[in-house]
Write a structure and sequence with these properties.
Elements lengths: L3 E6 L2 H10 L3 E4 L12 H10 L4 E4 L11 H16 L4 E4 L10 H11 L3 E4 L9 H9 L4 E6 L10 H11 L5 E5 L4 H11 L3 E4 L15 H13 L1
Parallel strand pairs: 1-2, 1-8, 2-3, 3-4, 4-5, 5-6, 6-7, 7-8
């Protein structure tokens, strides 16, 4: 089975280009420069209509931190329900306690609101104090099907041994380690070989000029897809 390729989309055009060039799944966000925030319901609806591949939608109300108060949760749960209502495949979410551990209660509430949608826990994971302990927590939630991680480093290419260990830890479970942040077209084949990941996540690495604010580059997506198929 070839490695899954997830590409960040911020517009309908991004989504179409990525899907046509061989992406297996999209992560839909707005404000990519802030690490991704919740997109509008109109954008979600339009992207779901525009492509046939799964669309996972980030639900993140602000970029201040991953520690949320009661009002933040009220917003997030409404957004999760809205994502479900327009037919997206899943939600991408993450929440921490002030002590740097996963907020289990908050995650459980989000899972309940998602009502069967696939759950990806995003790179809030990388801000936990102990990645292996955090992964154990997430493995206890059957709804969490992906954990997006850079191995706790700014670039996943700086954390290949950590990612390899996380892949081993999750092996045989319902949860896939989704490696992302800092991946490049040139580095992806070697990275997959070292880490044995079964899913990779690309943002700026498959955009025009490597610029996170630029459109998706169809040629780069197609090249990554071909490299992953051969990996």
């Amino acid at each position: 089975m070839s490695v899954l390729l997830e590409v960040i989309a911020t517009t309908v055009a991004d989504a179409r280009i990525a899907a046509q060039a061989g992406a297996n799944r999209l992560e839909l966000v707005t404000a990519m420069g802030e690490g991704g925030l919740t997109p509008s319901v109109g954008l979600i609806d339009a992207v779901v209509d525009a492509v046939s591949i799964p669309v996972n939608v980030i639900v993140r109300p602000h970029s201040r931190s991953f520690v949320y108060d009661a009002d933040d949760y009220a917003v997030m749960l409404r957004d999760v329900r809205a994502v479900k209502a327009v037919g997206a495949h899943g939600v991408v979410i993450g929440m921490l306690n002030p002590d740097g551990e996963i907020d289990r209660e908050g995650l459980a509430r989000a899972i309940d609101a998602a009502d069967g949608l696939a759950i990806t826990f995003h790179r809030a994971f990388d801000e936990t104090h102990d990645l292996h302990k955090a992964l154990d927590v997430l493995l206890g939630f059957a709804a969490v099907t992906n954990v997006l991680t850079s191995g706790g480093k700014p670039s996943v290419l700086q954390a290949q041994s950590v990612v390899r260990d996380l892949v081993r830890q999750a092996s045989g479970s319902h949860c896939t380690v989704l490696a992302g942040a800092g991946l490049t077209v040139d580095a992806v084949a070697g990275f997959v070989g070292v880490t044995q990941v079964r899913a990779v996540h690309f943002g700026s690495g498959v955009r025009v000029g490597g610029n996170g604010l630029a459109p998706v580059d169809a040629d780069k997506v197609a090249k990554v897809r071909a490299l992953l198929g051969a990996a």
